[in-house]
Amino acid sequence: MNKPAEEAGIPTFQTSGNEATDDQVSASADDLGYNENFVSFQSYQLYARTSGTRKKSDDPVIICLHGSGYGSDYWQEFCDYTSKMALTLRYDRAGWGESSGPQYQTPAEAVRDLYKVLDKLEISPPYIYIAHSYGGRIAREIFQHHVEDVAGAVLAETGQETVAKFDREQKRRHILRQRPLSVIRGNFLLDKNRQHHMGENDVTESAQQTQQERQFIEQWEAEDRKSKMEQLRLSKNAKFVEWSDVGHDVIMDRPKDVAEEVRWVLEQIISSADEIPNRSERIRDRLRSVLDCRPQ
């Protein structure tokens, strides 16, 4: 179900400079138009992959933020859709996937690394962030310190991660202001429910144990939904999407539908451009041309 929040407003785009370093970049391209990059730091390197095109420097770029235990491969099918809309970047955080380095970084360290990757690949703002699971914690760090670079966001099954110290303040301030935000909730307890039903058929499980399991599931379900809906307060232009037929891995299970939420964000940016005369021709028409190619 979709639950719109407030009417779209005008997002602001500002480019913040990144300090050059001695880091090196190596790149290769495959036959499908995907470009692979390894950005080297002093003691480790990060793997990044781009797809799609960016015709103008102020076209929004889609950036994928994976969760713990995941990596850039998780986004493959999703990126097949979004690459038709805009330049899309997916990468492995340090210690995950093809990237080396310390696996458990602070969110600030992860954001620092991402900005070095963006700098070395010469990918400037504005950015549309799509975050999954713990990737939402990285997104919140970005909102706190680089919100001027954000054009919009999709938070998919986020909220289970450690709550940021600035969580309440971001919601109070509507940190994204009028920037479009889509919050996606899957049925996080889908597997747990299945286990519960299996337990009901196990004659060795007592009625008391079964009742306790059911109560736990119901309580957790309510808390999970509440925490995700509260994320709508990050923006005054937000919507809530809920799918009961998939669990935590919404990106893998419903990539086309998640891509459509990114499309909604782009459409909201177009609506904002309509309200800015000097951006009408420059942004609106160009984005509409790419949005005409809907995922098949």
SSE string = EEEEEHEHEHEHEHHEHHH
> Could you give the distance between the termini?
22 Å
Helix content: 25-40%
Question: What's the count of strands?
Answer: 10
Shape: globular
Write the SSE topology.
Blueprint: E1 2-4, E2 24-29, E3 35-40, E4 45-51, E5 61-65, H1 76-82, E6 88-91, H2 107-120, E7 127-132, H3 135-146, E8 150-156, H4 167-173, E9 181-185, H5 190-200, H6 207-230, E10 238-242, H7 250-253, H8 255-274, H9 277-291
Helix pairs in contact: 1-8, 2-3, 5-6, 8-9
Descriptive report:
α1 packs parallel to α8 and α2 packs across α3. The N terminus is likely disordered. The chain contains nine helices and ten strands. Helices cover 39% and strands 18% of the residues. By secondary structure, it is of the alpha/beta class. It is globular, with a radius of gyration of 20 Å. A hairpin with a 4-residue loop joins β3 and β4. The longest helix has 24 residues. It has a ten-stranded mixed beta sheet, with helices on both faces.
Short note summarizing the structure:
With 296 residues, this protein is of the alpha/beta class. The protein has helices at 76-82, 107-120, 135-146, 167-173, 190-200, 207-230, 250-253, 255-274, 277-291; strands at 2-4, 24-29, 35-40, 45-51, 61-65, 88-91, 127-132, 150-156, 181-185, 238-242.
